[in-house]
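Contributing new complexes? Match this layout with adenosine-5'-triphosphate.
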Amino acid sequence: MNPSDLLGKAVLSETIPRLELRDVCRDYEGARVVSDLTLALMPGEVTCLLGPSGCGKSTTLRIAAGVEAPTHGEVRIAGRKVADPSRSEPPEGRSVGLMFQDFALFPHLDVAGNVAFGLTCGKAEKAARVSELLARVGLAGYDAKYPHQLSGGEQQRVALARALAPRPAIMLMDEPFSGLDNRLRDEIRDETLDILRDEGTAVLLVTHEPDEAMRMADKIALMRRGRIVQVGAPYTIYTNPVDREAAAFFSDVNVVHGVVKDRQTETPFGLFLTPGLVDGADVEIVFRPQHCRLDFDRQEAPVRPTVEHGVPARGRVARARFMGNQSLVELAMDHDGSILKAVIPGVFMPREGTPLVLSLRRDHAHVFPCVNQSRVADPWERHVEQAAE
Ligand SMILES: Nc1ncnc2c1ncn2[C@@H]1O[C@H](COP(=O)(O)OP(=O)(O)OP(=O)(O)O)[C@@H](O)[C@H]1O
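Output block (do not edit by hand):
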């Protein structure tokens, strides 16, 4: 059976989202755990719902699967409404494949029985699909083995074959690789992705690991406290974070504080333009340790400011650690004693107390108004203009 059959003869279009969540909310005991969530998954696209523990990722996935109903909003599959607060079709009618961390193969069924479990076609067709899938996941000839005779990675492959068997239009995966050790995880993750892409399945993968999302996703939907705060390609999300918290979700960040004056902000690293913000607004300049440069502080040949790296600021080494293929140097800054971190490729282990100058890639620095700033009531200029109208 193919996905079109499962969707009641609806033709699966390449231009209609396979899965759409529109303004979905979910309340538990009066508390809203998913808020106004809108998301569309296109065929063959892997979307990662990424966010910290408890932000509502699994709840969103369960609503997409049909295990739970939305309190508000609707779910559409291939353009057809399958759930709103008054009605929610069960998972069987949705053409969704499910893969969870606890992949729970049926222990009393052999591998072939597990893979064939969701198939309703004739015996010969079933056998053909099972062989095809076992070959696809690298387990040809494992048909008669039982789950307890398989390694964790092999069990995971069987779970994938089982989920793919009915050719679901959508695959919903909740931390499916977290039970595997690192090397196996990378391998299985990549293989799984290749298979899902080949099958043209739209994938929604829940994870709290930024590395996993960056590695797997065509599109990341970053969630926080029940809401999607940013959606985009991994590169975009990483290089253009929507705020400090979004930046800090992917790596350590350095933060330098400043106050807006005449649409710009003076810092020990030079001036930053801060258009749209009112005088007196507190801002933070956020940059990743990877985007820092360190130089020795030579009085006779001082480091000059450049367009790319701006003005260097002085500090002394507080700590240096070797991290494998790079070194992490923590610098106590002369201007305020704060610690800023720099990641330097290769081995760079200066002694504690060594004077260094730190500069940053200005094109990778982000300026955000402080979230809990107190100096002005509202940092945005437009509000002041609107109020004056
Ligand atoms: N059945 C339930 N009844 C009451 N509260 C629930 C229920 N399911 C989830 N919650 C709450 O909803 C919030 C979101 O939970 P959810 O499992 O969706 O988060 P998550 O982002 O997937 O977290 P994790 O990464 O830890 O699995 C949490 O505060 C959780 O305690």
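Reviewers usually confirm one structural detail per submission. For this one: DSSP finds ten helices and 21 strands in the chain.
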